Amino acid sequence: MINASAAGSWKLGEVTVNRMGFGAMRITVNPDRDVAIRVLRRAVELGVNHIDTAGFYRTPGGPLDLDDGEPVRYANELIRDALAPYPDDLVITTKIGPGEDPEGAFYQARTPTEIRTQVETNLRQLGVDCLDVVNLRIIKKPGSDSIAERFGALADLRDAGLIRQLGISNVRADHLDEAEAIAPVVCVQNSYAIDMRRDQDELIRLCADRGIAYTPFFAIAGSSREGGATTDHSDAVQAIATAHGVTPQQVRLAWTLHQSPNVLAIPGTGNPLHLEENIAAAAIHLSPAELATLN
After folding, report:
1. What are phi and psi of 167, to 5 degrees?
2. Which pTM value belongs to this model?
3. pLDDT, tens digit, for every residue of 185-243?
4. Main-chain phi, psi angles of 163, to 5 degrees
5. Is 57 considered catalytic here?
């Protein structure tokens, strides 16, 4: 039986979640709203109790840069319509930093007022009074680029009761140190895949030592990033997929989960079949020899 619990669990701060979750960025792709609603509900039926999203995940436009001429569809609003009232064990992690101004153009929130506006947008879209987890998403700059002021503003909103727990995204180890000096950090979310950003291995271990979840995005997409699942798989990935009778994308997810117990997978899709395949990857066991080959 396919279930996200096959991947095991991790304590995300104050709550425990299954390590196989769901990423909502691509849920807006299909213009058929009913399909999106069905995928979200099916994900929860299959044991997903951790959904990653953002107020700026939308189509047309948004990070996917799609323009299908259809009405605007926001991932957060689809989540609300599909799942509210939310199950008691469901954790929704959202992020702020990138956001839309009144004209629909994207900007980076830097002031306390801008950060509060984005938090309130997420509250309204998701239909809640308090956000489970909010990641501060930054654009890294070479050298010194402090997140203290922005993370401090987010911590103030936690203290005000608008947020339960905090995380950071697209960051380095020094950003983590800086944030932890201000408030507890329950997760770090960076791009990472079997063939991309392997310099993150050390940060994953650091997070594990501190009891912090590491949540990679683009685990399936790799260098294709927002373009979707890559078709550029190594010979090793292809061979192991064939040996297990699974897809290369499932091997990529299984490899991701095998990296450390604190790694949470958040594959996203608007395709019901791909959802089932992604969740099924939670149960794939890779041997030490297979992992060595993949590495």
Report:
1. -145, 180
2. 0.93
3. 999 999 999 987 778 899 999 999 999 999 999 888 655 555 555 566 788 888 999 99
4. -140, 140
5. yes
